[in-house]
């Protein structure tokens, strides 16, 4: 039996003492003032063990981590048809890259880069009755927690400065890969990214992907095959042009966000979430990457 508590505490202390904690994202002005000394880790195992260290109960902006939950909702709604509009190949490029879109006739490389997530947002907009309300309820249901909300200031802040996302959405529209208007799709997308959650809430939310599609209350939200597919996409595409590095160093499917969160999981075993707002050059949390590398090294638990 592993001493998870001791391992998490060791990793936490090492992270606190790190000299380079990365740089907080400032292209979304509302995120720029978050203190980069925040650091939290939370582990939840399928057999009921749960430990947290540091700021694991502080809400933060989940940003791109929301793309996984949006994808799972889209798959639950329309199944395999999702793949007619977005591919499943790693991009090897930053999350906001536009060039590939033009080369590939408006079919984004995968659903976890911005252009792909904007197409998924369009699908949700077409299939949910009250899109923003229904999506928030879906996240609350997955997490078994009604205390999760959009941060409207963050959504507004990104809307005011999200020029690249407007460019991506316009390009998608020009290739007829958006059904709804650019403004409506981006309004939904910016809200989706602005959801705030704590590390422990995120571990709960992603539990179903480690548990063959069944959430904490044992409700099936995806089939076993769909959960497998999302985990495969997280492994190959969850960290943009650092997906290879994450697989190499950590060896788990996972997803990062520019708010500094990372969720990773070992199917049938556990979900682990970290939060530290300082990012590395590729836009992934500096301490989070370090902490997860140490976790899989110390426990020898990875998919490999
Ligand atoms: N909302 C952010 C954006 O669209 C999400 C990016 C991220 O977390 N990598 O730019």
UniProtKB/TrEMBL annotation:
The lineage of its organism: Bacteria, Pseudomonadati, Bacteroidota, Flavobacteriia, Flavobacteriales. Keywords: Acetylation, Hydrolase. SUPFAM superfamilies: beta-lactamase/transpeptidase-like. InterPro entries: Beta-lactam/transpept-like, Glutaminase. Its EC number is 3.5.1.2. The gene is glsA. It is an enzyme of class 3 (hydrolase). Pfam families: Glutaminase. It comes from the Bacteria. HAMAP family: Glutaminase. It comes from Mariniflexile soesokkakense. Belongs to the glutaminase family. Homotetramer. It catalyses: L-glutamine + H2O = L-glutamate + NH4(+). GO terms for molecular function: glutaminase activity. Gene3D superfamilies: DD-peptidase/beta-lactamase superfamily. Substrate binds at residues 64, 114, 158, 165, 189, 240, 258. This is Glutaminase.
């Amino acid at each position: 039996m592993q001493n998870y508590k001791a391992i998490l505490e060791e990793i936490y202390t090492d992270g606190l003492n790190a000299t380079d904690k990365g740089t907080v994202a400032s292209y979304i002005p509302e995120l720029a003032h978050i203190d980069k000394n925040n650091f939290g880790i939370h582990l939840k195992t399928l057999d009921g063990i749960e430990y947290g260290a540091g700021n694991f109960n502080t809400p933060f902006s989940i940003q791109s981590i929301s793309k996984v939950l949006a994808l799972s909702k889209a798959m639950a709604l329309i199944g395999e048809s999702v793949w007619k509009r977005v591919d499943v190949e790693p991009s090897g490029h930053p999350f906001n890259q536009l060039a590939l879109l033009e080369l590939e006739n408006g079919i984004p490389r995968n659903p976890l880069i911005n252009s792909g997530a904007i197409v998924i947002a369009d699908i949700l907009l077409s299939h949910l009755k009250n899109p923003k309300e229904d999506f928030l309820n879906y996240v609350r249901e997955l997490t078994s927690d009604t205390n999760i909300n959009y941060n409207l200031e963050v959504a507004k802040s990104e809307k005011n400065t999200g020029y690249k996302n407007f460019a991506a959405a316009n390009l998608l529209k020009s290739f007829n890969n958006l059904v709804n208007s650019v403004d409506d799709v981006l309004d939904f997308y910016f809200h989706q990214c602005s959801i705030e959650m704590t590390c422990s809430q995120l571990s709960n939310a992603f539990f179903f992907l480690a548990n063959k599609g069944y959430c904490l209350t044992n409700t099936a939200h995806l089939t076993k095959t769909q959960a497998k597919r999302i985990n495969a996409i997280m492994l190959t595409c969850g960290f943009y042009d650092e997906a290879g590095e994450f697989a190499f160093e950590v060896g788990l499917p996972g997803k990062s966000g520019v708010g500094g969160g990372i969720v990773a999981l070992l199917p049938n075993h556990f979900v682990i979430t970290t939060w530290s707002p300082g990012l590395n050059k590729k836009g992934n949390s500096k301490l989070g990457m370090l902490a997860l590398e140490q976790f899989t090294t110390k426990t020898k638990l990875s998919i490999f």
